[in-house]
Amino acid sequence: MFWIRRRSIKLVMAIITLVAGGLLGLSALARQPDQVSILMPAPFADSTAELVKRFNREHRGRIHLNVIRGPMETEAISDLAISSLLLGDTPFDALLMDVTWIPKYAKAGWLEPLDGYFSDDEVNALAKGASEGNHHQGSLVRWPLVADIGLLYWRTDLMDEPPRTPEELANISRKLQDSGQVPYGYVWQGRQYEGLSCVYLEMIEGFGGEWLTPETARVGLDQAPGIAATRWLDDLIEAGISPRAVTNFSESEALQSFKSGQAAFMRNWPYAWAELQKNDSAVNNKVGITTMVAQAGEKPAATLGSWGLSLLSGSARPESTVEAFKFLTSEDSQRYLYTNFGYTPTQNALFNDQDLLQNHPSLASIGEALSFARSRPETPLYAQVSDVLQRKLSSTLTGLTSPTQGMEQAERSTEQVLEAAGGTP
Q1: What are the phi and psi torsion angles at 179 (to 5°)?
Q2: pLDDT-derived band of residue 342, with 50, 70 and 90 as boundaries?
Q3: Among 138, 148, 193, which residue's Cα sits nearest to residue 346?
Q4: What pLDDT is stored for residue 30 in this prediction?
Q5: Which percentage of the chain shows pLDDT scores above 70?
Q6: Are the C-beta atoms of 306 and 146 separated by less than 8 Å?
Q7: What is the three-state SS of the chain?
């Protein structure tokens, strides 16, 4: 009987050990933090690296944020995201999205609504331009991280005030060039890529037209304002106000030309301000910021180029992911991103922060320009219609077609894209 009792005791002890070990294992699993993964383009992944470290320190044991550093180019990051989404089991909980992607991703069912995570007060605290482009069919599907807009940079050492109309910009440029003060008047993004579409949107709006109205599928490229906008850009090159090389300029080439003192004006995004204040800049402390020129009687337009955070459908950690969103877009985080990297804040409070304005007076001009923010056509077909516009504009700017021919061709090709999709954007 003794050996039976000893065996029973050993069995009980073994069971207790197994149960205790299992409970300890479950406890350890329970303590494992939520692993949140966000895919970002390389520049944003780099600039938010310190914020990610702070988040992980403050949320140690609960949430661990992993930012996946994607490609540099906008379309390359979108291709990567779409490839993973099409597989049906994406490794990402969230994606930092360009404003033009929203209709396409939302229509595909890849975005989770955020309405239940953000209060009306939080939405109302966004600056006017930053609140654009975050909804699809009335549902909030993106929370803005930065509020990029197209701006006109001008040389304060060469003029007392900036031009307000296309004619004024051209006239001032000619005078400065004729007097030998600058080789060129105006540099901008003329290469055949998305930047050219952004430039054109500002000009067609400034001439009183509209590129595409998604609600009615009305295309305005071959109307008088669309042709006038194209002709003005083409004339800048023909007159030598813009260098012929501008047809190969992206943001970086335009910035380098302006930064070296080669031009009186530049079209670029807010990030350029910080670059122009560096010690190697020939125009340090000689630059002002304003809205793009517009024809007399028309409002200026600032292309909205913002990036925001979207929750992907199927994420197993939505609450933790949104908590990361709120940290990365908090006032403190936005102050850090603006002062260190020049990324435009999205909250009204920061545009009224006197300490920030005192150290960064350009922020006031950016805030004013935000009120003129204009979204590119909000359609799932945006990539296709933008590609059409870029190709036809490039053809005109390089001398292959006239402004009228180029825009007539762009009009027809855009209508064909819409018709192929059922006639609606």
Answers
A1: -85, 0
A2: confident
A3: 148
A4: 53
A5: 92
A6: yes
A7: CHHHHHHHHHHHHHHHHHHHHHHHHHHHHHCCCEEEEEEECHHHHHHCHHHHHHHHHHCCCCEEEEEEECCCCHHHHHHHHHHHHHCCCCCCCEEEEEHHHHHHHHHCCCECCCCCCCCHHHHHCECCHHHCCCEECCEECCEEEECCECEEEEECCCCCCCCCCHHHHHHHHHHHHHCCCCCEEEECCCCCCHHHHHHHHHHHHHCCCCCEECCCCEECCCCHHHHHHHHHHHHHHHCCCCCHHHHHCCHHHHHHHHHCCCEEEEEECCCHHHHHCCCCCCCCCCEEEECCCCCCCCCCCEEECCEEEEEECCCCCHHHHHHHHHHHCCHHHHHHHHHHHCCCCCEHHHHCCHHHHHHCCHHHHHHHHHCCEECCCCCCCHHHHHHHHHHHHHHHHCCCCCHHHHHHHHHHHHHHHHHHCCCCC
The length of the chain in residues reads 425
